[in-house]
Amino acid sequence: MTALAVPIMVHSVERALADAARAAEFGADLVEYRLDRVADDPSAATAIVEASPLPCIVTCRPVWEGGEFEGPDGQRVELFRAACAGARRPAYLDVELAAFRRSAELRRVLAELVDRPDGGSQRDTGLILSAHDFTTRPADLLQRVAAMADEPLCRVIKVAWRARSLRDNLEAFELLGQAYKPTIALCMGEFGLASRVLAGKFHALLTFASLDEQAATAPGQPTLTELKTLYRWDRLDAQTRVYGVVGYPVGHSMSPPIHNAGFDAAGVNAVYLPMPIPPEYEHFKATMTAWLEAPTLGFRGASVTIPHKEHLLRFVRERGGRIEPLAERIGAANTLTVGEDGGLEASNTDYAAALDAVCEALSIGREQLAGRRVAVLGAGGAARAVVAGFAACGATVVIYNRTLERAKRLAKEFTEGPGKVVAASWDKLCDTCCEVFINCTPLGMYPNVDQTPMPSEGEGAFRGVGPGVVAFDTIYNPMETRWLREARAAGCVTIPGTAMFVLQAAGQFERWTGRDAPIEIFERALRERLSRGPSA
Ligand code: NAP
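Above: inputs. Below: predicted complex with NAP.
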């Protein structure tokens, strides 16, 4: 079983032990005491190890390896002796490979303090040899791993480096797969989360999680709560399937809480991760290819968002996969599904989500959309999917856009019916007589929450809202925009962007699992995430 270890930067014995007690309470298996700042007080090391509520790793990381200790190796030797001086001993001492190679004194003292993995002594303390690179993947990574593997005193190999892309996680998994000593292989930074969340799937000795965001000791380290609650650490195993949201940036995506909660509620052995991929197609292609071909990863699908929706179509086309006809027509896909046979499918769940949101609000079937007059505000990516969906159902769609030319170009793409699509200039919006209005502009989106596409008073005031009219805002942050608030007050049927967001996620869940999506769980997870703050 892969252990969950919480690093604690020690400032005082009392605070460190209190933090360790919190870590134990939250379900950690191990703590790492970082003694970088108290290295001049060996008695602190003895006291902490003696009273630790969890088995522990003792580390004193020098500045030259990304830590805060600035003294000589001799001082660390005293610290390690003190840590092992009490009746209770640390489970591990962690020493950098570079220091171990350089200092004969360090090697001699460690040989007295730790057990050799091949038996003999019974000191109950093992040696972790470690190598960290906070800037990139070190060119000699494999040589370092080999040196640790060959060192008789080394019980655990630890390597951590800043990932250059999502692909670096795969090398960490390979190292874990090939290891013949217990190994920790972790990637740092925005691209490295997968190596941390999936450490258990690949039988790492441990992964690190911080007590809170401020307490992280490496960039990209998740918190204990994220790992346990959001990513369901205790449920993941070698069979866990991997999904994610591909985009750039994806740090604030609402999709991970929704899909992970959905997998949990439905008892699906899967995890859903943020997957940042830089904007160029070459990055997208190289990363997706590597993740799909990684033999034991189990990468089975992705939500795809800006700027990669067009890239997904091109990628699946190049690999001979299946493309949903309407996604092809829209020119963008938001869902990748990997079949049991490895075949790829690109589809678009945005348009269906928009259609279903309106049909549910009006209690009608899709066929009853034929002939209805629908105003779409905006002519960007979201508008394309909405226009395509309503046109396919036979509605009459009027596209209002700030840049009229763009609206005309979009309308022209859907002239073949069955619906009718026309373009109109933005200033005609106040006089329109449509019965469904769909805002696909960012007007009113956080942080510009006072904006509205349809002012209710003053010059250009919108006169068309009222009972019987549907006002659908695709914006979901905030949950209720100014426009929706005013439309609701005027008696409209209102549909928030959260409805579309949840339904597009539901379409993805159903494609990936073959089961109905737990919509209420999705709604609750989204509400909970959004209620943490408008910028969450
Ligand atoms: P986009 O491709 O950048 O298009 C933005 C559109 O809004 C363009 O037509 C643009 O007009 C128009 N626009 C921008 N600023 C404007 C302003 N100040 N006044 C008038 N028009 C303006 O963006 P997108 O990807 O389509 O996203 C648009 C909205 O859809 C976002 O707010 C997003 O939250 C929402 N969305 C929601 C979901 C969901 O699941 N609920 C899914 C996708 C998107 P020009 O052509 O003149 O530039």
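The pocket of NAP is lined by residues 350, 378-383, 401-403, 406, 440-443, 445, 474-476, 497, 500-501, 504 (CB under 6 Å).
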